[in-house]
Write a structure and sequence with these properties.
By secondary structure, the chain is an alpha+beta fold. The chain starts with a helix and ends in a 9-residue tail after the last strand. The structure holds FE2/S2 (inorganic) cluster. FE2/S2 (inorganic) cluster (FES) binds next to loops.
Length: about 200
């Protein structure tokens, strides 16, 4: 009996010791990881602007980036996708972006962008924060028989067009957000800076 009590005590001691060593090990492992980040990576983690080369983005494609811990998408729209935008206005909740303030002033237009070809969006559904799926093809979809390309949120079925504008009659209350961004030149977009250079 006494022997068993000793064993129990020893086991508890070992468990506590292991837990403490484990926590210490995790802390020790975290420091080299943070220290290993380059200065630019540390700044980026803290919310610094992010510059993206869009020359590799094909028409109809999407680039997925991170800015301030949030997903940001850059989409290069085709002429067909752009042409379809105007005909959708009557089916949208806020086609002219004047109900909710979801974009900088320079993106408050039909395309919700600086250049019609390039769309920049925060990839978070305005309903409850899921990440919508990119569905760029103009063709009937299970969720919309007259689909002109856009984004579909699988969580509760919200749909957004190729400008991130929300359709009427879905749970999402607002268009997808456009973050501040600017073109540095023809090939590079910086997310987190306005065209006038000021930091967001
Ligand atoms: S979170 Fe997207 S529809 Fe609910």
């Amino acid at each position: 009996m006494a022997e068993q009590a000793v064993d129990e005590g020893r086991r508890r001691f070992l468990t506590v010791t292991t837990a403490v060593v484990g926590a210490g090990g995790a802390a020790a492992a975290a420091v080299p990881f943070l220290a290993s980040l380059l200065p630019s990576e540390r700044a980026q983690a803290a919310g610094a602007p992010v510059t993206v080369d869009v020359s590799r983005l094909e028409a109809g494609g999407i680039l997925r980036e991170q800015w301030r811990g949030r997903p940001v998408w850059i989409v290069r729209r085709t002429p067909e996708q752009l042409a379809a935008l105007e005909g959708l206005n009557s089916r949208l909740r806020d086609p002219n972006s004047d109900v909710t303030d979801q974009q900088p002033a320079y993106a408050r237009n039909l395309h919700r962008s600086i250049k019609p070809e390039f769309l920049v969006l925060v990839g978070i559904c305005t309903h409850l924060g899921c990440s919508p799926l990119f569905e760029p093809e103009i063709r009937p979809q299970p969720f919309a028989s007259d689909w002109k390309g856009g984004f579909f949120c699988p969580c509760h079925g919200s749909t957004f067009d190729m400008a991130g504008r929300v359709f009427a009659g879905v749970p999402a209350p607002a268009n997808l957000a456009v973050p501040p961004y600017r073109f540095d030149d023809e090939q590079r977009i910086t997310i987190g800076l306005d065209p006038e250079q000021g930091a967001a």
